[in-house]
Amino acid sequence: xxxxxxxxxxxxxxxxxxxxxxxxxxxxxxxxxxxxxxxxxxxxxxxxxxxxxxxxxxxxxxxxxxxxxxxxxxxxxxxxxxxxxxxxxxxxxxxxxxxxxxxxxxxxxxxxxxxxxxxxxxxx
Length: 124
Known about the structure:
There is one protein chain. With 124 residues, the chain is an all-beta fold. It has no helices and 11 strands. β7 and β8 (78-83) form a beta hairpin. The chain is globular, with a radius of gyration of 13 Å.
């Protein structure tokens, strides 16, 4: 069974950068569309970005366009989320998820496997 582990979260000042990693075991990530989601306290889980399994098409939610970049390294079985110009409203637990048979999309119910999450806190 595919297992996902996120890493790279932490505390960063507004305007700073972080790169999150999502590494898979028990399966080949290249066969899956990978999404990044986030959930802030008291809010619903929100789709942030995804990268397709077919042609590496990327999709971003409006609030992170131009600041976040998703990319994948299939040789390392890892997908990354580069986050620049971070804002306090980006503070959340970030999750990666894998969707088998999914082309792309940011709806959580379309994804089959989830990691445990990594905390990102943007604060001065």
